[in-house]
Amino acid sequence: QKKVTDALILKKAQEAALQDARRMSDEIKHASAGVPAPGAEAAFKKQCEGLKLDVKSTGLFTKNDYIPDIVRARDFAEAAYGCGPNETAGAAETPEGAAIIFVTEKIAIDEEKFKKEKIEFK
After folding, report:
1. What pTM value is reported for the model?
2. Alpha-carbon distance 105 to 115, whole Å?
3. How many CA atoms lie within 13 A of 3 on its CB side?
4. Residue 36: strand, helix, or coil
């Protein structure tokens, strides 16, 4: 019974964390609306500071990568890939709770290199 109770408490805590992260993400998006790209990251960090949130960087990653401090969080990667650079992507559940995502950079696939490697791989 204790294990079930602990699991339920953990699940409810994760749901509450995600709900709070979504609310804060909406606040950040609203406060940063209309900020031009060069200042968007600074505006995001300032809003996070005002909400007493830690700001961490993952570095570049693919949808299937292990992301430091996040592990393999499918929701996180999907949210990040769903928006462009210098945009707040929203909130996503992670193994440690929830995260608000701001995309600083995206690198597109090199189509020519892909075609060449695809032929060589065949």
Report:
1. 0.78
2. 24
3. 0
4. coil
Nearest alpha-carbon partner for 33 in 42, 23, 43, 21: 43
Based on DSSP, count helices (H) and strands (E) in the chain, helices before strands: 4, 2
Residue the block writes with tokens 């060449």: 116
Q: How far is CA 72 from the centre of its chain?
A: 12
Give me the residue label for tokens 């406060």.
31
Q: Residues 58, 64, 65, CA angle at the centre, nearest 5°?
A: 35
* 3-state SS class at 92: strand
Per-residue pLDDT of 24-58, as tens digits, reads 999 999 888 888 888 899 999 999 999 999 998 88
Alpha-carbon gap, residue 49 to 10, rounded angstroms: 27
Distance between CA 106 and CA 21 in Å, rounded? Answer: 23
- The answer to whether the beta carbons of residues 105 and 60 sit under 8 Å apart is yes
